C-alpha cells in the first residue's frame, strides 16, 4: 500500500493555500502521493486548477462541530468545519499519511515524516502540552474514524474544533516522549504573536514546514506586481514578512510534478537574502533614512494603513474588504509561469 500527504479545503478562499501547499510539496521532491479532500463548497473550476499539483482530489461531506460557544472563545467561528478533517481516517487505500493544513507550506523535503508512528505531531505554541493539528502523522483506519465520531458525540471538543478533539482522543501524546513529538521545524508558526525572534533568526533556515496560523492568511496580504514584494496587512514581524514573501513567490511561479527539488524556497540563498533585506530596511529606519522612492513610498504606506484598519475588523469584514486593500486579487486558477 502507498503513502500520501493529505490536506483539506472547504471553500474557494483556502484553495489558494492548497495551490501553494501542493506546489511546495512537488517542488520539495516528495516521492509520496498528494491527496486533497474537498467539499461541495469548492467550485468546479477551482478543483480543475488544483489538479496540476494534487495527484488525487477526493470529495468528502462537510462535518461541522456545531460548537459555536467554544469557537466564540477562540473568536474563530469559521473553524467549526475543521471536524471534516476526521474524514482523512477513511482513506484506507493508503497505509500511512501525513496531514497538512492548507495554510501550511513545505520548504524542504519532509518524506522522513512517514517513518513516524501515529499520532506524531509538534507541540502547540499556545499550550505545548497539546499538539497542533496543522501537521500530524496518522494511519487511515475506518474503525478509528468511527471511534473518533463516537468520541466527538460523547465528549465534544474543548476548543470547538478538531484540535481539542484529537488531543483528547490521543491523550497519551504528551507522555509519549520524542518518538511522537515532532520538532518545531516541522510546524513552525509564521507570525510574531507566537515566535521568539532571536531563535527564529538563529534556526529559521532549518524550517521544513511553515504554518500560517490565525485568521489573516498570506493570500489576504497585498502583493505589488510591479515590485514583486508583499505588504503584510497584519502587524509585521521578521518571520511573517519573510515567509509571506516566500508564499507569494511560490504562488506566482510555475510548479507541478516536473519541478526540480532544488527549487525549494528555503534555500540558503533565499534565506540569507531575506534576512539581509530585513536587516537593511531596519537599519535605514533606525537611521531616519526611509526609502521614500521604494518600499516606503507614500502609496505603500497608505495601503498599509488601510490594511491595518481592515485587519482589526471581524474576519468576515476582512474577507469582504480585502479587495479594497489589494490592487489585484489573484484568481486561484491563474498560474503565472
From TrEMBL:
Record keywords, A-Z: Cytoplasm, Glycogen biosynthesis, Glycoprotein, Manganese, Metal-binding, Transferase
Spans annotated as Disordered: 318-337
Entry's Gene Ontology molecular function annotations: glycogenin glucosyltransferase activity; metal ion binding
Class in the EC hierarchy, top level: transferase
Family, similarity comment: Belongs to the glycosyltransferase 8 family. Glycogenin subfamily.
Cited PANTHER family: GLYCOGENIN SUBFAMILY MEMBER
Purpose: Self-glucosylating initiator of glycogen synthesis. It catalyzes the formation of a short alpha (1,4)-glucosyl chain covalently attached via a glucose 1-O-tyrosyl linkage to internal tyrosine residues and these chains act as primers for the elongation reaction catalyzed by glycogen synthase.
Protein name as catalogued: glycogenin glucosyltransferase
Lineage start: Eukaryota, Metazoa, Cnidaria, Hydrozoa, Hydroidolina
Amino acid at each position: 500500500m502507498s503513502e500520501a500527504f493529505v490536506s483539506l479545503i472547504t471553500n474557494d478562499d483556502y484553495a489558494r493555500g492548497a495551490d501553494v501547499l501542493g506546489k511546495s510539496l512537488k517542488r520539495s521532491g516528495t516521492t509520496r502521493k498528494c491527496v486533497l479532500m474537498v467539499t461541495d463548497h469548492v467550485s468546479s473550476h477551482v478543483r480543475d486548477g488544483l489538479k496540476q499539483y494534487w495527484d488525487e482530489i477526493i470529495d468528502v461531506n462537510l462535518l461541522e462541530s456545531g460548537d459555536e460557544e467554544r469557537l466564540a472563545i477562540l473568536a474563530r467561528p469559521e473553524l467549526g468545519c475543521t471536524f471534516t478533517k476526521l474524514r482523512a481516517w477513511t482513506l484506507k487505500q493508503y497505509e500511512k499519511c501525513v496531514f497538512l493544513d492548507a495554510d501550511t507550506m513545505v520548504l524542504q523535503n519532509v518524506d522522513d515524516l512517514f517513518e513516524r508512528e501515529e499520532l506524531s505531531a509538534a507541540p502547540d505554541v499556545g499550550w505545548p502540552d497539546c499538539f497542533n493539528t496543522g501537521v500530524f502523522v496518522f494511519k487511515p483506519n475506518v474503525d478509528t474514524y468511527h471511534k473518533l465520531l463516537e468520541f466527538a458525540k460523547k465528549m465534544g471538543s474543548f476548543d470547538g474544533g478538531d484540535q481539542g478533539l484529537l488531543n483528547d482522543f490521543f491523550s497519551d501524546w504528551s507522555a509519549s516522549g520524542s518518538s511522537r513529538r515532532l520538532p518545531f521545524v516541522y510546524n513552525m508558526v509564521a507570525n510574531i504573536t507566537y515566535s521568539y525572534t532571536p531563535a527564529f533568526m538563529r534556526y529559521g533556515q532549518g524550517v521544513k514546514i511553515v504554518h500560517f496560523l490565525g485568521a489573516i492568511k498570506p493570500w489576504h496580504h497585498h502583493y505589488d506586481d510591479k515590485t514583486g514584494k508583499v505588504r503584510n496587512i497584519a502587524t509585521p514581524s521578521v518571520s511573517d514578512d519573510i515567509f509571506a514573501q516566500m508564499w507569494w513567490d511560490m504562488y506566482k511561479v510555475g510548479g507541478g510534478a516536473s519541478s526540480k527539488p532544488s527549487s525549494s524556497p528555503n534555500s540558503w540563498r533565499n534565506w540569507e537574502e531575506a534576512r539581509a533585506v530585513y536587516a537593511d530596511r531596519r537599519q535605514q529606519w533606525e537611521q531616519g533614512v526611509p526609502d521614500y522612492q521604494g518600499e516606503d513610498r507614500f502609496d505603500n504606506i497608505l495601503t498599509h494603513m488601510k490594511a491595518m484598519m481592515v485587519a482589526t475588523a471581524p474576519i468576515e469584514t476582512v474577507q469582504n474588504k480585502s479587495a479594497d486593500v489589494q490592487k489585484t486579487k489573484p484568481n486561484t486558477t491563474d498560474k503565472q509561469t
